[in-house]
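thread from #wetlab-drylab

HS: before we spend reagent money on co-crystallization trials with pyridoxal-5'-phosphate, can we at least see a predicted complex? here's what I'd submit
DV: go for it
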Amino acid sequence: MGLLRPNIIALAPYSTARDEFDGTVDISCWIDANESPYNNGINRYPDPHHRVLKKKISEIKGVECANIFLGNGSDEAIDILYRIFCRPGVDNAVAIAPTYGMYEVAANINDVEYRSVMLEPDFSLPVGKILNACDANTKLLWICSPNNPTGNAFPISEIKKIADSFRGIMVVDEAYVDFSSCGSFLPYLKEHPNVVLLQTMSKARGMAALRVGMAFAHPNIINCMNNVKYPYNINTLSQQKALETLCSDDYEEHLKEVLKLRSYLENALKKLPCVKKVWPSNANFLLVQVDDADTVYQLLKDHGILVRNRNTTPGCRGCLRITVGTPQETQTVITTLANITNTSH
Ligand SMILES: *Cc1c(COP(=O)(O)O)cnc(C)c1O
């Protein structure tokens, strides 16, 4: 625990109205929290410990509740990790590039130096360069796998190698792991107490609007994250709806469909003259290199199709990121790109 900020180690966390109550007697008068007594389904404060939702996640993931943190999206977990490990103006974080933009934004907000290490041209991990970028003040190392926006997953063996050699906290962001054929780091978490794993309800689980993100880690880290989060960080409606959605069985079927459509989209795009390269993907999107990314992006937009333009992202010159949507959306983007190609030649 030598990595934590001293103020976080010393922190006396806020104690909510019901934290001291152990649930052993039947309470008929809930007059401890200054709530309105009129029951409209939302007049009571949310469960700050997310007990019911966490138990369900614990069953699905095969991980004990003590190893699970739930946040207002993964973005909350990202911010909290900076706040518990990085002394502003002193410590630094290392990350691959290109990658998810929030790691850098959250570093800047927290006044933490952010060091980027470019992936190799084929988007593989430059393990040596990553470790060389770290020094005694490097507290966090961000590895997004499958990576956004490149779509590739890194071999578990390489992630382990970095975790073993790095003396800080390695965060593996697995937002897209459901779509990956490379597997999760979750089974190896116990052997690596310096790894924090991020997953989310926002992608394959179909709950982006609820804002529920998960972190899996050693209980000491989870405790600190819980002490720092806002007590009521996930509202009651989101906790209830997430539980309900996890209990329904759309997930497997939708996942299969997205994977089928991903390979259909990939093959169709590869046949288009304006497409130079389609990167193989372990996520629910494809990184596509085209002849003139800004023009293609604009033309698609003129046709009512919004993709992500990554043309100015270092390492992604000429690239658009296209999400696997519905069968109809997938067909529309293919047809439109085919027409764009025809009319511009
Ligand atoms: C979409 C995404 C997330 C999810 O963020 P939430 O705040 O949970 O919606 C996390 N990491 C990466 C790399 C993503 O692309």
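DV: The radius of gyration is 22 Å.
HS: ok that's useful, forwarding to the group
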